[in-house]
């Protein structure tokens, strides 16, 4: 007879809780695998958010043609007026970027020099969490620090810090829905042009906001056409495509981690299957007892399946939550060519990880459950 | 005792293959057991006692012949039907108790009741406490098998066998692993279950003294049954 599912779940739980050491070791193994899996998924998801275009995208990046690093992309600041006149353009922000490292790095420091009167109008969602926006506008060496950057470096308003030969005073800490903003230091454009020795009137790129997403392509073409015969021709792309093309090294690196994630999944599957198979063989007598009492083969197998699910789920909870907390506390950023990728934990990754762990537990228990239930009672009793 | 036949076995044979050979532990066996009888089955090792017990308990099926228990023809039942029948109609007592080691005495006795979805937690508790009370172990409900003596473990196994109030109890050498005093207590319990509660009990044993607790003893040898009283007494003398 098929017993009540809750009763079987209770029996499965007792099997695990009363073989405490075995269960803890298995859950520990599963959680390590799921930690790795969730870490890889966090990187993948963070990258997808940065590179996958959506219907709401309306930002273009104008870069110097055939240049890929902020140190070599130099465009005249005066282009700003020409770009602004193009039909469909809403806002243009000239940006000077200075970074400590153009290659792929785990701790990149990025200064963005922008006109102090344009930043908030260009990005109205930018919020000053502490400190003062007005102080940033009035003091020449003032910087608005992204919240992730500030936490990583332990910076607060009033502090001073120096990087890439640029010394700034922290006027405020900002928070923005744009992940990039949370990992950079905004300073006044003229200040950075001088401090980084690129000279006044030179910028790295223009960020251009268009009226509608449908305007992205025609506006990009018009901008590039406008400066095609100029001494500094441009190459204009949507912001996410720009990220995807510019940060190739980083994307390849993150892409490789998929294999690690897949390996972690197979390791978890193998570990669970091994633990459950050993338990099934060890419990031949118990299987005979259950069946003699009147538990059906399905019920006996179901106990094993539920054990697998519980082990997988418990390992998933520990592993995925640990990964989320790890990324939350450490606030890692991957940087490449002046672009930063914040590795941010997300509810989706944790929820997806739990489902994966549960499915792995169920999959891993199928064969042990079959082994546990298929033998005739007489044979089981004889071997007991 | 009731004269109604509870177990009726006609020309029941059981054979199975072991490698190249076919082994037939039971051959065309006839047996009738009245309702409420306490029957002992004796015989040398390999005589087919446990095989017969397994057939009566519905955990194995005869190769040929018929076996009717409590009015139900077990030979026509599928594996799942036999499972259902066992859960409702038969309690099995093993020589080595076979309690689930990770469960307490209470939880072991509760196991068969988990199959009955109509029973709530409270009803299950009442039945388990009543069964443990009957075998004199109400105060050991929270103990695991490893914390009980052999005799106590066997009494828990009996409580588990009777908790659903089945008409049939089968016991495979229930005193075989116990000292004399514990064995005597178990036999008294089985006797009371037959006499006071009307259970039909079939017990396999090697122990002549244990067999004496039964109302009737049958001797099984080379797959055939015989009335054993005179023969056993003659052997003992």
Q: Care to describe what's here?
A:
The complex is a heterodimer of chains A (384) and B (237). With 384 residues, chain A is of the alpha+beta class. In chain A, 54% of the residues lie in helices and 19% in strands. In chain A, the strands form three sheets. In chain A, strands 1, 3, 4, 5, 6, 7, 8, 9, 11 and 12 form a ten-stranded mixed beta sheet that branches. In chain A, strands 2-10 form a two-stranded antiparallel ribbon. In chain A, strands 13-14 form a two-stranded antiparallel sheet. In chain A, a hairpin with a 2-residue loop joins strand 7 and strand 8. Chain B is of the alpha/beta class. A six-stranded mixed beta sheet of chain B has the order 6-7-8-3-9-10, with helices on both faces. In chain B, strands 2-1-4-5 form a four-stranded antiparallel beta sheet, with helices on one face. Chain B starts with a strand and ends with a helix. Chain A binds chain B through residues 1, 3-4, 7, 11, 14-15, 18-19, 285-286, 288-297, 299, 376-378, 381, 384, and chain B through 54, 57, 59-60, 79-80, 83-84, 86-88, 92, 94, 96, 98-103, 107, 111-112, 114-115, 117, 160.
DSSP, total strands of chain B = 10
Q: Which chains share the greatest interface?
A: A-B, 27 and 27 residues
Query: What's the total helix number of chain B?
Result: 8
For the CA atoms, what is the radius of gyration of chain A? 28 Å
Q: Please, how many helices of chain A?
A: 14
Sheet with most strands: strand arrangement of chain B: 6-7-8-3-9-10
Helix content of chain B: 25-40%
Mean pLDDT of chain A: 88
Residues in helices of chain A, as a percent range: 40-55%
Rg of Cα set of chain B: 18 Å
Overall average residue pLDDT of chain B:
89
Large-scale geometry of chain A: elongated
**Content of β-strand of chain B:** 25-35%
| Topology pattern of chain A, helix = H, strand = E | HHEEHEEHEHEHEEEHEEHEHHHHEEHH
